[in-house]
Amino acid sequence: MVDSINSEKLKNTIVRTFHDSTMCGGDHMRDLLVERIQHHRRRSTYRRGYEWCSGSGPLGYTLLDENIVEHITFSDLYQVGIDDCLATAQHNNITNSVDAFLSSTIAGIPQIDALDLVVSNPPHCWSQNPLELYSRTPFLLDKDMVAHKEFFKNIKARLSEKAELFIIEHDDNIKDVYISMGEQGGLTFIDWYDFDTNQDGLTPHKLLHFIA
Length: 212
Hints:
The chain is α/β, with parallel strands linked by helices and 212 residues long. It has a single domain (5-211), classed as Vaccinia Virus protein VP39 (Rossmann fold, 3-Layer(aba) Sandwich), CATH 3.40.50.150. It has helices at residues 26-40, 58-65, 79-91, 146-154, 175-184, and strands spanning 5-9, 15-19, 46-52, 69-76, 98-102, 115-120, 159-170, 188-194, 205-211. Strands 5-4-3-6-7-9-8 form a seven-stranded mixed beta sheet, with helices on both faces. Strands 1-2 form a two-stranded antiparallel ribbon. α4 (146-154) links the parallel β6 (115-120) and β7 (159-170). α1 crosses α2 (58-65) and α4 packs parallel to α5 (175-184). The mean pLDDT is 87.
């Protein structure tokens, strides 16, 4: 199957470049994510945002386009996704407001300024990939939650004081596992929001909210 390249204009000025395999569902949930951030925001401006497991950056570029963050950092283990993030920055002449790193871990990202806002729609499958509908997307599997464990172990050291994290997850009866990983990493759990898009019969999503 050919992984076609596409573009979309966001609500304001940014035109985003992406391949089919780098969307990973973020486009379906970003408006709800922004709504929750705006409702609960603790500061007028988040200077530096970060999208973990970014793909082509559907969440992070939305934050930048809507002036929620002044700068956005992306990371992903998929080279095509990082290439898409960088292409969007170049095409919109906003390279000074964007960083993008190819890395499967938080520890593997170069040292950057402290992050004020973290968002993500990470992989939700732990032992196998049952989502044949999205078989074109190479990275839906986080076997044994290895990436999640590493993220929650190491993200606190990258955050500013009272930074906020909004992480989209599946509601698969392991809420306490997510919360425990975050708290063990030094984060404070705030809430578990109903974030149900329930598209195509997929497991309903929830939104984890932590602060540093």
